[in-house]
Amino acid sequence: MKRIVLICCVWGFLNSCMAKKEKTQTLFDSIEKLSNSYGICSHITRDGVLFDFDTRNNEKKLMVDLGIDYVRTDLDWYVCQPKENDAFNYTQHKEALDVIGDDLKILGILTPFTPRRTLNQWEIYVKATTRKFKDRVNCWEIVNEADLVKYRIKDFTPEEYVKMLKSAYSIVKNNYPQKDVVYSGLCDVNCGFFERTIELGASRYFDIMNIHNYANKDREPERLIPYFKKLNDYFIRYKINKKVWLTETGCTTMKGWASEMTQSIRLPRIFIISFACGIEKVFWYKTRSNEINKNDKECFFGLVHKDYTPKPAYYSYKTLIKICPNRSTRPKLEKNGNVYSATWKRPDGKNVWALWTSKSEEVVKLNIKGKYKIYNLNGDEQSYNSCDYTITPSIIYIVGAKNVDIVN
């Protein structure tokens, strides 16, 4: 009888240990290896103290130094045609994109006019803008955060957006079939806007699905996993098979929201989790904090300060791109107890493991085989004198090992 009880206890213990290990599935259509996966948002086409046109050369230097692939920026209607029936003037847009040159790919955002203009006028703007920048812009996003446009344009509806999306898609594909059309970067896929547009047939009029999600205040990056699963539920329900981009993510460092170190710690977790779930490209919002208004969270999202001195997140992004470069295999993510681990193979053939927790610290034993080096969030090499490792929300990278196992 005691033996039976002991066996049952051991079996129950093993099952409980096994249950703690959770693998995150790749949810969306995505290629096996990362390709042009790192992006950033920059308002280089908008002038004024809130934006980055006047500092566009510094913006470009920052992007190149980071090693990103894509810049997402606005091709605003109000800038190129402020008054109805005016001739289009693209001087400001062109000066901004000339700075980018051929060094980076461009995701251009086509924006509606406030107050509302007609669908016919929208089509004229889309035709003129896509023709003007056909050799500069790689893909076109149709309206930023369409689910929030109703706060700028009265009674803006999913029905109106689908008409705009359909007409823009037709214009782009009829003239530049190789260009991808990107759905509006939604603030929240669960607000009803997205589902209504799909019911209206919107999935026929875009190549790439597009979402936004932020890790502000106490919203840890790991909450992205159920958010992506919810989007995948919509895909399954409506039989959608599209690539997905996360074209805005970030963490404001406004006082009372998150510290600069918290921003830095969250950044690589956002990217790695997104890649593991099948997100093709991730764009950090944004390059520079203008820091104009200390009470406005929008003024503190940047990787660098107003004067372009780096925040810690600048270095954690640069380190991530170096340790998980393009042509690396898509990270595979699992959770073992409270510890998250992701693994991938770089184009140089080296295996990489990234380990972290969501909030608390966790002491674990690691069985590491082969020659390896360990780096912290900023790429500084670390040394450990035992097989006990304290894993925290600040990620560590194990580079070059043949295998890494969490023993306990």
Give the SSE layout.
Blueprint: H1 2-19, E1 21-24, E2 38-41, H2 56-66, E3 70-75, H3 77-80, H4 91-100, E4 105-110, H5 119-132, E5 139-142, H6 158-175, E6 180-182, H7 193-199, E7 208-212, H8 224-237, E8 243-249, H9 260-277, E9 281-285, H10 312-323, E10 332-336, E11 339-345, E12 351-357, E13 362-369, E14 373-375, E15 381-382, E16 388-391, E17 396-399, E18 403-406
Parallel strand pairs: 2-3, 2-9, 3-4, 4-5, 5-6, 7-8, 8-9
Antiparallel strand pairs: 1-10, 10-11, 11-12, 12-17, 13-16, 13-18, 14-15, 14-17
Organism: Xylanibacter ruminicola (strain ATCC 19189 / DSM 19721 / CIP 105475 / JCM 8958 / 23) (Prevotella ruminicola)
Protein name: Conserved domain protein
InterPro entries: GH, Glycosyl_Hydrolase_39
Summarize the structure in words:
- The protein is an alpha/beta fold and 408 residues long.
- It folds into 2 domains: 24-323, TIM Barrel (Alpha-Beta Barrel), CATH 3.20.20; 332-406, Immunoglobulin-like.
- The chain is built from 10 helices and 18 strands.
- It has an 8-stranded parallel beta sheet with strand order 6-5-4-3-2-9-8-7.
- Helix 5 runs parallel beside helix 6 and helix 6 (158-175) packs across helix 7.
Provide the descriptors you would attach to this structure in a database record.
31% helix; 408 residues; globular; TIM Barrel; alpha/beta; Immunoglobulin-like
